[in-house]
Design a protein that fits this description.
heterodimer; A: alpha+beta; seven-stranded antiparallel beta sheet; 25 helices; B: 728 residues; alpha+beta; eight-stranded antiparallel beta sheet; globular; Myotubularin (chain B); Myotubularin-related protein 12 (chain B); PH-like_dom_sf (chain B); MTMR12-like_C (chain B); cytoplasm (chain B)
Chain lengths: 662, 728
Amino acid sequence: MEKHPSAAAYGYGPESSGAAPNRKPSRGGGGGAAAGGTGSRQPSVETLDSPTGSHVEWCKQLIAATISSQISGSVPPPVGLRALRDGNKQAQMEEAPRVPGETIKTIAKDVMYICPFTGAVSGTLTVTDYKLYFKSLERDPPFVLDVNLGVISRLETISLQIGENNRGIEIVCKDMRNPRFAYKEEQSKLEIFETLTKYAFPLSNDLPLFAFLYKETFPEDGWKVYDPVAEYKRQGLPNESWTISKINSSYEVCDTYPALLVVPTSIKDEELRKVASFRAKHRIPVLSWIHPESQATIVRCSQPLVGPTDRRCKEDERYLQTILDANAQSHKLTIFDARQNSVADTNKAKDGGYESESFYPNVELNFLDIPNIHVMRESLRKLKEVVYPSIDEARWLSAVDSTHWLEYIRLLLAGAVRVADKLESGKTSVVVHCSDGWDRTAQLTSLAMLMLDSYYRTLRGFQVLLEKEWISFGHRFAARVGHGDENHANSERSPLFVQFVDCVWQMMRQFPSAFEFNELFLITILDHLYSCLFGTFLYNSEQERVNKEVHGKTVSLWSYMNSQVEDFTNPFYVNYENHVIYPVASLRHLELWVSYYVRWNPRMRPQMPVHQHLKELLVLRTELQKKVEELQRDVASSRSISSSSEHGPSPSHTSTPLYTTV
Amino acid sequence: MLSGGGGGSGGGGGGAGGGGGAGGGSGGGRSPKPSFVSYVTPEEINLTEKEISRKEKQPDLLQGEVIFCSASPIRKCTQDDFSQRGIFGSLFCTNFRISFISDETQLEEEEGQVFKNKLYGENDIPLTCVDNIYRGFDEKKKLITSGSVRNKYPSKIIIHCKDLRVFQFSLAFAKEEDAKKIFQGIVHHCLEPKSLKCIFAFSYSEKMTFSSENQTKLKTVMFDSMVDWAQEMKRTKGNCKLVSANADFNISTKYIWCWSHHSGCALFKTASLPLMQEDGCSQSYRTYMERYCTCVKTEELPETLPTIQDIQQSYNKFKQFFLVDNTTEFWMSDVKWFSSLENSGWLDIIRQCLTKAVEVVECLENENTNVLIMEEEGSDLCCVISSLVQVMLDPHFRTLEGFQSLVQKEWVAGGHHFLDRCNYLHKDKESPVFLLFLECVWQLLQQYAPAFQFSETYLTVLSDSVDVSVFSTFLFNSPHHRATTIQPVSLLAQKGPLNLPTVWDWSVQFNSAAQDFFTNPLYVEKSRQDKVPRKTFRPKHQRHQSLPSTAFKSSPKKSFFKDETDSLKKMLRVKRISRWLNPTDLTQSTTREFYEAWQRKPLDYHGLLLPCVDGPALRVWAQRYLRWLPEVQIFGGGAMTLEKKLVDLLAEVRELRGKLDWHCSVDFSHRGAAALAGSSVRLSSAFPFFVSRTWSFKPAIPSCLQKNLITGTFADKEDEDSECLGVI
């Protein structure tokens, strides 16, 4: 990870951090986090020493770029000073900071990093079992590149000749960059490539994922964020029509579903099993979300196994009828098949298919025309070519257009808007499925829920949404991301989750004050989707996670993130409680997420000083409020009149809902 | 239906009405909520409707406004109404505008209409704001040109406005005679060439007296007197000599001082390289230049920037994406959005201008060289570049008053041909050069919002005002033109000179609540302790600057001048050749470095600002271009929700401070919170311009999702359209 040069100087070395009490025991490693950051004016030195904290710092810096003079104008590089004092301790100073549990595997000196933006630079390359760390003191302040190994998609040797350096490595990353190194052909350095390969792909080399070695502790326990029973209770479940079933408690009915499922009360277990045999991968229709007023529901499942012979399943038909009956407001049930009609037909020929409106009375079937995972993978691959390393500014728009990435984002958002609108305005229950019901289905249901339910737009709520719709319902993270696996060409890989987070970002842009979390929150989630530092996104299903004891042996990403909530909080947040937000699914309003996809390009560092200004204001307000309260207390005690709520809540919180949904 | 068009019926005198669109604060006494749950029988409703429609038959005329013709009933087809049923009413054509007055009572008006223009309402189109008129038939449309109107009239006319509104009026219900009249009237007044004196501003100002109080109250420096220039020079510590020799406007080629850098170097602009002329005045100018600028870098703008025609063509393509007639058309064009956007080249032109301005800034800032920018007339791109340079370098021009003074200095006094470029007289010299400048400023604004005192709403309103034909600011081709136009009239009429309002007198258009939207709540004012005295650089060319100014007042011998002029010309030529030798890549790469070096430094909102011009950084000015499109309105969202949060917070902080009884030293910019009162959920991305009638929370769902399917049909469709457009 390249960073603003002055950043490196700061966070490095115990002196800069030791002075401050380490309030947050966050010795966590950030995904590709480099140490330090020019920091913000708040005295957050305690976060600077920790790579996790510094990840935030670094991202902040990335986002806030060159914010203001008070910040980076006054960075005294302690390393530089020490360099003067200690003279020749270069090696020591180029040493990599480590997270607890991390061990250094190899160190190579005089390696050259070929930076596509600022030119080649020589320094020391350290490979640990978690990251690759390059530091050069050639530049002032020192240059640091920090890439976690989880992000590596493939490693390639390249032949080149730069001075004495005749060996080269290209590191193809999943996060839109390909750093390159060059070094002399020496015995000691041949190790680099091998060590990198070994630890970048631990599963292919019979090694554990780093998440199992990571030894950090956080004040918050992220594994407690999601409790399915509590979440269903929040939605008002169980009720007379829906019950929480334990039929899958040992993952026997469906091995990719969670243990707890919400199904219609009137359906017997025996029928459920029959329905399961009629649905691909046994992924039966289960409730994801229920509208608090109309009782219309979002139900997710996989495709029915209709096949070319138009098989029927009485139980499945009755099951959908029961779902329809559970909602008194509508006498229709809408099925959204995420696929293109033609693709669904192809699937039908291959024993899959879709619900025929003639066998399922009162059902309305819609295709959302969203292409499959392979198309999305290809699209992101093209996008990478467009944004890295350099941007052709004259043809930028058509280049972005040719990747179709935003067009697919638009399709997804439009589909989710249709789902949400069906529930909200049509008061109609919807069933969403694609082929297996774990990719596009998860995208659509979670996006629709984000529009409908303001809880999911809070920091905690969003975590619950991910834990529920994506993680527990078996989005195949291991297969789609390829954690620790060297088979980069595996066709199972696809950036579906990235695409979803992009959609969330697009919604955030259109509704800048409707989300409690900020852009950094989303970027951090995506960084740790790959990093393998936390257990959150590992494995394909709840069952696998239980078997691997993920909760006991790894740390949850939410433990880290919820321990420093203020970094991820959107200062513009206004309580949009009870309001449905419909993003506009028009390309005129969609934009490429530059601060994620193009963040390695130093020229494209977006400036977000607006937040800075607002944060200052918020601080000022809190101070003033405190003072006012003090004064009022004084007055109250002297006159013994309570005047506690005189200044009242902020106007933004008194907004009366126009209409309610939750 | 309703007999007797405009004349007879009450003349809008009825106190209840006050006119649909135009009248301010109509219906104050009505219940705040539109409710059609009614206690009256349908017949009664009909009655009242008729009554009201009779009463409100006429628009509220402005001073000096005359109705030319009218017709009713006319159906206005509405876009934001999903049922497409439209509204019935009357259509008027006056010497100022085309006005549609609805028969229905405008109950919805009052709420959210803080931002109301006093001159024209939402159903009014100033004649100069009309861009194109089409005749609509079936699902197609055909462009109407001034010559093509005979005795026929179409059943439907579609009017595209310069502020990007689209109106569709169905004439099919009106009496044939009326329909024909109004159609021909509209076409005549909107498309035929006319003389300057027919512009509404003149009849308007004859009747209105714009008290010079208003004018003097304005803090905007008008640059119409020597004093203004002298003050500005003093402010920038410039070292130029003011020459009043041009008071009688007889100098055609001139160097004009624009701005002085604190290092002593300055920016000049000029029409293209002056030929040898023997007349004294230009001589003295030249001499003056020679003395002042031994080292001057010239930038010939036409070499690297698009022509006026290119700009016009590109903008014509670009604006089509926003002039959408119906929802189907919108979603079909949406699929090709990015490639169409690129094909229009509009963003690229903006990029070129910004890049050029950065180059000039680099010369001034890094090399401390004088810069002379040239183009044929010296009043189009010269204005764009010189004013952009100043916005980037000088924080004064990022304040509201400073910006207005800048426009006054560089554009109005600088002789930009507003009259021609705005095409008031339909003379085919149109080009949105001033809009291009506003676009560039908007790009800077969205990149560095806290550096600007004015908001994007201000820029949008300013861009709209250009087409209102009331303001002297945009009415003339040069100060000379202005002077000669205004003076003779007044001499004959034995009155004082015509007192035309300037656009900067915003009270002509908006009340003070609406004007609150002009200030940017993000603006970070310079705090006092920041105001360190400027470092005084030692100017590079001190010797020349310290020459006694009398040296060029007296007229020395010719030969002496000739020599120096020759050497100057030689020097300029050398510079030009060296520019040829340096491929543009090279200048670009140094500019890149300049930008990157600047970017590495901490950002100072009161210092130099450089725009990022990389592909992703340049955006479409969504507020201006998307505000009327119901399909892309984000209900409950948009940038305004951010502003609201900020405004709320500021108000709260102020209130708290008040409570603490601190002597009110509020150092944040104010904004009347009243203007944004209420829940942010009620706002939308088009706020404050477009407030939806219906507030239906139905989302806009793309009517077609699959690209493959669409491209085929769309390609066909497009062909049809272009065929139609081709027919004259």
